[in-house]
Specification:
By secondary structure, the chain is mostly helical. The chain has one domain (2-79). The protein is 84% helix and 0% strand. Helix 1 packs antiparallel against helix 2 and helix 2 (30-51) runs antiparallel to helix 3 (59-79). The radius of gyration is 14 Å and the shape is flat.
């Protein structure tokens, strides 16, 4: 259990550093925006399922969280 928490924490740090590098190295484009939002959504799901223990929750809450996150990402990327 403790090893998986440490691995997820290291993965979150790597994704955060990758996002910072991508956003500073490349200009603003639809692809970069989609990539950054995809990484942010992946980080959100990692935190929700690992640290908030959503993996033990009822399937309704899991599905509703994923659908809500998908709608938010589509709306933000669609506005750009």
């Amino acid at each position: 259990m403790k090893n998986s928490l440490i691995l997820v924490y290291i993965l979150l740090l790597i994704i955060t550093i990758t996002t910072a590098c991508v956003s500073s190295l490349f200009g603003v484009s639809a692809f970069i925006t989609s990539l950054i939002m995809g990484l942010a959504a992946f980080k959100f799901l990692l935190v929700a399922f690992q640290f908030m223990e959503l993996k033990k929750a009822h399937s309704f809450w899991k599905i509703s969280l994923i659908i809500t996150l998908g709608l938010i990402v589509v709306l933000i990327v669609g506005i750009k």
